[in-house]
Structure formats: structure tokens, C-alpha cells
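User: quick one, sequence for these C-alpha cells?
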């Protein structure tokens, strides 16, 4: 009975996936992975040091006293958003060549002769790429913890925003794998993934700018709550907006799961935190893209 349960362990199944073992060994065998990791940490440290020096000089001139909490929060914010930018930039580069690279190296047919199921192939490629992204995120945790020394940042805030970063990487990794499977050209898959990424960043901002006048009119027409819900959903589509809203609400209400908003008529409504909506939305979209990629790959192989 225990042996049957151990064979059903998802983590054990993933680790025993030959694609995962092959990709992880190949990715960490050369110098590229460590060069990228070094540049990644170097950029984060550079912006941290620049922010710290600027903030120290500014506080010394204006007040003559150093506010540790403000410095800690600013350092943490800079690290998080630099990480977000780098993760969104790096993730497509490590996923879009997952399957298209096999076609370009003319090894895809050889790979398919192993009779490996499509879901194992796609899952193995995605997991191995995300394992490297996870390494990048874990490597910056000591830098994020510096903010705890200064104060102004709670541990739950670090954990929640780290989860947002991880889900962002998982989603864009799945998008990269999809385009890698359907285009058969790494450059084209890379470009399409970046187009989707830019659209997800810009489109919610445009929607918020359009909806703001409607929201203001809704204050007097009694439709404030629907606009508030729709605005929250739009914010939860954008990783950066989700981080900003989550940080503000955590600082104001000190609640990890729910926040309260008072409408113009005095009614108080309780809504889930933006990071919860973001995580659920991106998790569902990742599963859908994974299934579509698997089905599309199966259809391509049958042609």
C-alpha cells in the first residue's frame, strides 16, 4: 500500500521524468546558467545600493535623521520590482526554445520515438525551466531579508509578493512553452511571448484609464460596487498592479486575506486581497494553456 502511494507522489513522478533530468543536467552543466544568475544578482544589488545611497543622501538633507522603516520598505519595493522585470524578461528566454529548439536541432523526432506522453514532455520542459527561475527567486531572498533589518516590511508581505513573482513566472513560462510548441521557431516563439507579456502589462492600464470616468460617475449612480469589483479584477491581471495594490492594502489594513472598502453611501464591503485573485486567475490560465499545448502537440504529431 505504501509503495503504491509513493508511486503516486506527484513530486516523485516529476523528478523521474526523463525530460526533467535531461533538461536540468543540460541547463546547469554549462557556464550560461551561472552567468545569468550572476548578472541577475548583480543588477538587483546595483539597484539596491543606488536606492540606499539616494535615500540616505535625501533624508540627511531634508530631516537630518534616518528613518529605517522607510529605507527598508523602499529597498524591498525596489528589489521586488527589479525582480519582476528580470523574471518577465528571462522566463521567455528559457522556455520558448523548449520544443522549438528540438525542431531546430532536428532531435524532436528522436525524442518522440521514446513514446513519452505529450503531457510528460510539456510538463517536463516547463518544470525544468521553472526550476531555474525558482533558483533565481530563491537567490534574492537574502537581499529581500535586508529590508527586515531596517523594518517597515513584514514577513507575510515578503512571502505573498514572492508568490506573485512565482505565479508570474509560471504563467509566462506556460505561454512560452505553448508558442514553442506551435511555431517550431525559437525566435518567433520568443517574439509572440513578449507580445503577450506586453499586452498583459499595458492592456489593464488602458482599461483602468478608460474606466476611471465611469467609476466616478458610478459614485452618484449607485453602481460603485460593480465598478469596484471590475476594477479589482483588472488590477489582478497585471502583476505590477497586483503588487502595488497588495502592498498598499497590507500597509493600511494589516490583513493578509481580505480587505474592507467603504462605499460612498456608507456601506462597508469585504473583498479578497488582489494577490488571491491574481494567483487563482494565473493558476487557472496556466492549467488551460498547459492542456491546450498538450492537445495541440498531440494533433501536430498525428498529422
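Assistant:
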Amino acid at each position: 500500500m505504501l509503495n503504491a502511494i509513493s508511486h503516486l507522489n506527484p513530486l516523485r513522478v516529476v523528478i523521474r521524468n526523463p525530460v526533467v533530468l535531461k533538461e536540468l543536467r543540460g541547463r546547469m552543466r554549462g557556464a550560461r546558467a551561472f552567468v545569468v544568475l550572476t548578472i541577475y544578482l548583480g543588477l538587483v544589488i546595483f539597484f539596491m545600493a543606488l536606492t540606499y545611497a539616494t535615500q540616505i543622501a535625501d533624508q540627511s538633507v531634508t530631516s537630518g535623521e534616518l528613518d529605517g522603516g522607510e529605507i527598508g520598505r523602499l529597498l524591498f519595493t525596489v528589489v521586488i520590482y527589479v525582480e519582476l522585470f528580470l523574471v518577465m524578461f528571462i522566463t521567455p528566454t528559457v522556455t520558448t526554445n523548449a520544443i522549438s529548439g528540438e525542431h531546430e536541432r532536428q532531435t524532436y523526432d528522436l525524442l518522440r520515438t521514446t513514446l513519452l506522453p505529450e503531457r510528460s514532455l510539456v510538463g517536463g520542459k516547463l518544470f525544468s525551466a521553472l526550476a531555474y527561475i525558482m533558483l533565481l527567486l530563491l537567490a534574492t531572498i537574502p537581499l529581500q531579508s535586508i529590508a527586515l533589518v531596517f523594518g517597515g516590511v513584514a514577513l507575510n508581505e515578503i512571502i505573498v509578493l514572492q508568490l506573485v513573482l512565482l505565479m508570474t513566472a509560471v504563467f509566462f513560462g506556460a505561454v512560452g512553452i505553448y508558442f514553442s510548441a506551435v511555431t517550431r521557431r525559437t525566435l518567433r516563439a520568443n517574439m509572440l511571448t513578449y507580445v503577450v507579456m506586453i499586452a498583459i502589462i499595458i492592456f489593464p492600464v488602458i482599461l483602468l484609464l478608460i474606466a476611471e470616468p465611469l467609476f466616478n460617475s458610478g459614485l452618484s449612480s449607485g453602481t460603485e460596487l460593480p465598478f469596484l469589483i471590475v476594477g479589482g479584477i483588472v488590477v489582478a491581471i497585471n502583476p505590477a498592479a497586483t503588487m502595488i495594490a497588495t502592498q498598499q492594502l497590507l500597509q493600511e489594513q494589516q490583513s493578509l486575506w481580505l480587505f474592507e472598502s467603504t462605499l460612498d453611501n456608507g456601506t462597508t464591503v469585504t473583498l479578497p486581497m488582489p494577490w488571491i485573485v491574481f494567483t487563482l486567475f494565473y493558476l487557472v490560465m496556466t492549467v488551460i494553456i498547459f492542456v491546450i499545448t498538450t492537445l495541440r502537440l498531440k494533433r501536430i504529431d498525428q498529422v
